[in-house]
Design a protein that fits this description.
Chain lengths: 137, 138
Amino acid sequence: MPDRSHIGRRYSAPGQRIAPDSAGAMARAIAGADEVREAGAVPPTYAAVYCLGPTLAQLFSDPEVGIDLAGLIHGEQSFEWPTPVHPGDVIDATAEITSIDTKRGMTFVRLAMEATRPADQAVVCRATSLMIVRALA
Amino acid sequence: MTVPAASGVAIGDSVTPFSRTVTQEQIGAYADASGDHNPIHLDPEFARSVGLPGTIAHGLLEMGILADAIAAWAGGNANLLSLSCRFSKPLLPGDTIICTGTVVSVDDAGVATLEVGASSDRGDRVLTNGRATVRLSR
């Protein structure tokens, strides 16, 4: 189980390329039966793919932290997008565990992420995530 | 797309009403698009085994729809500067998500802050404590 000794652990996922197909697939998934509103654009929450996905995957498979995925809930999420991203951009993402608290049998893991575009040094996304790990009976 | 002018946006203004019905097929498409294949989103039996009523939508799919609602009002994705929310209640396949937003401030730089959220057509508040900032035209 995660504990406070894991605060400060960092995960790094450089070289995330925003493939047009992948961004388009997410835009269609968000649109569902509706038309994609802004064809060819990268949906803002595509940060799930270039920032959250590759760093959280490392957290979830970090044997030292030992998160039980079966009891995992995404509790809160924040995104800031200082600069828009475009298909073809290559993004470096990092994440850090900023706090871990345990209450009522649940462990609250907070992370801060940042995604930058090395080509112009732009920060394209800052994010925080709250992951809640429930102890399953 | 028209970007609302800062001079024309007032505190208390609402985002254009926006709702979308989320199907299991859409949740599956989102799992493929996001790479999040956690079985709580895809396998009803597994979802029930961990205490859920059945499969549930990804919180980030709901947040993506909320972002879509706000960006539509704001005249495009690039005008959505930030978005945050709490995933309070699960959204189930077949539910319609209803997104709302209200302007709470507009600063001198033409950035509007909105309180935003989403509920299901069953009356659950699925996304709460939501905040968004949006760039308006000058």
